[in-house]
Amino acid sequence: MILMKGASILSLLCFLLFSKIQAAELNIISDSKFMTDGDTLVSENGIFELGFFQPGSSMNRYLGIWFKKVSVRTVVWVANREHPLPGVSPLLLKVVDPGILVLFSNMSMIWSSNTTMTSQNPTAKLQDSGNLVLTDQQERTIWQSFDYPTDTLLYGMKLGKDFSRGIEWFLSSWKNNQDPAPGEFTWSAETHGYPEKKLRQGSVVKFRGGAWSNQQVREYNKTDKNVTYLYSVVINEKEVSFNFYNTEKSPNPERVTLTSSGELQYLKWIEDSKKWELGFQLPIDICDTYNICSAYGSCIFSMVHQSCDCLDQKRFVPRDQKAWEKADWSAGCVRRTPLDCKNGSEGFIKYSNVKLPDTERAWFNMNITKEECEEKCQKNCSCMAYANPEIGFQVNACLLWFDDLIDIRLSPQSSGSLDLFVRMASSELAQSIFKKKGGTNSKIILLIIFPGVFLISVISIWIWYARRKRNHARPTMRGGVLHDSKSKEEDIQLPLFSFSTIMTATGSFSTENILGEGGFGPGVLEDGTEIAVKRLSRTSNQGVDEFKNEVVCISKLQHRNLVKLLGCCINEDENLLIYEYMANKSLDSFIFDQNKSMLLDWSKRLNIIKGIARGLLYLHHDSRLRIIHRDLKAGNVLLDLDMHPKISDFGLARSFKGNETQANTIRVVGTHGYMSPEYVLDGLFSIKSDVFSYGVLVLEIVSGKRNRGFVHPEHNNNLIGHVWSVYNEGKSMELVDACLAKSCHPHEVLRSIQVGLLCVQQNAGDRPTMPYVVRMLDGEGALPQPKQPAFFLGRDLQVADSSSSNNPANSMIDITNTQLDGR
Questions:
Q1: pTM of structure
Q2: β-sheet bridge partners, residue 420
Q3: From the candidates 288, 358, 631, 640, which is the catalytic residue?
Q4: Smallest Cα–Cα separation from 86: which of 105, 64, 68, 112?
């Protein structure tokens, strides 16, 4: 051990002389009898350090442990988190008999280890695991900090309960980054039924980690690509505990931390960038919301307009169909065919890859076989389901549920996915068996096959001819370069993926991986890279020109707030774009969803508003080519794992060289509600057209309402018109999404609303440029007063000046809703 003493020790000599605990009672911390302010205790290999610190700008001081070699001080354990030491009062840490670690200030005991075990000559040591231990002469541990976690879980620490010692291991968040006192969130083991981990906000369960089982789980995260974690479980009369290890030892510090906002994050220190990088985070998505789908409901995150479905649509139906259609899933689902245990013919249907239902009230037994488990459930008419998670070597737990099954999730990619056997009526079992065994008349097969072969032959010849004709005019890839016989533009260097590679990565474009119209993901390449694939539909309005345009635009752009194009694939009539995968998909799936909108608090929304602004600033002013997006909307803003925004879908974008800033078109394309008036009426688009779209987006993010389709009981205005009216009345805070009431900062909200109104002003010349928008959002200077916005009179297309209504371009308006988002 290494103990470094500061000059402050001299100022405490008088205090030591008058301490009630005599020096003869002291034992040593390393090679000294005490540690004071300015001293630190370092673990043997210099991995962790113990000392006094001040969090953030706070003047309070605490005793804590942090990573020694991490340049950004990261505290992993705090002793006196509920008893801060204000001011400059002297501090003293020492070990006293019978083996107690004590923190003093001004001759008063501030904190102690409260050790109950007596020992002689106790010694304090800081281990390389980050564990501060008190040991006796025989090196037996009499107290350790790992038994009293704060907000951070390190490898070797446990969650659960030690019944013999009366100790509970759990994480509790800091109140904020200035105050390490216990916050409102906890991550603990539920031990009333079969053990499982639960994230609580106060007493309310927000997320459940699922039933425990010993597993070696290979997961993808951003820091290590594929990492294997070993989940270790202990369940017996003395102890119920869970911990995990990274089987591939990493030289870089790692930790799991419960943040003050209620997120459980796995983080790894990246020395090259000098920052902590997020590997994964819980909760992951809206489906992780505890019991979001209620009884027998299953959450499916890939669904666009709703997140819940019944566990099995053939055997379960919504209890309240009308409420279900309105995304109110609180009533859950019920069986189509009620159970009738009297006839004794009921059985079980297996559901694989399931996050097992809440086990708080489940019965379990560790000493019976799978067959005995099924028999036990079969004989009890109240038993609704059973499961057999593996606990250890040749040991399986038998779980029985006697209530409605809640908090279920079907997830083939979930690390906690297991098999669940649900009790079913005999008629449901008969249908299942019939479908497996059903036969077909051979004569009917012959009558179908021969005409089918003839028809397929005709269609094949027609497809071959059509492809041959179309391939003369389509772009090709040669040597990793995109070529187009019709274009004299420079070739584009872009990686070329084989069609077979993309087929493998997306599971042959499986419907389980579908992200929306034309989008598939997450696909995983052989090197572990997660991708999203945009597949150009044969019936899409976007043709070869839009495909090449997107490649031309985005292949030359590199910015943290623009989605990254990894490559493309052209195979016969297949045109594919391969993007980086965005785990949280599109912004519109959050802000316009009653449940998912709660996952975006104000700080996240403001970060999204600023991120989109920086992306547009790059497109308009900082990239080699000046890019006008022309279809900026909530659906074309994707969110990565950390909820950082990235602008996507450049199929309609236009690029300019030199000092060009605007152009005309006779074909107006875009999305209702986001297009500027000069673009709709005159076909004139410029960087100010994107600014208008951005202003609409800002107002939608703040309010959680769509501009197009906005309905208010007192007037017929669209969202922009409503915002303008409320702004003039000085009631802008009424616009804020209801779920932001507790998290928003009024001055930031009001500033964002004013910036949004400045961006949607009717005349393009009155709108700010993106550099000015970025400065305004960063709080630089007073904001100008916005003028009357466009389209504020109502939902119909209306502007104050209609002198341009006779422009011939008006007859060529072709408004589209683009939906090909590779997410």
A1: 0.53
A2: 351
A3: 631
A4: 105
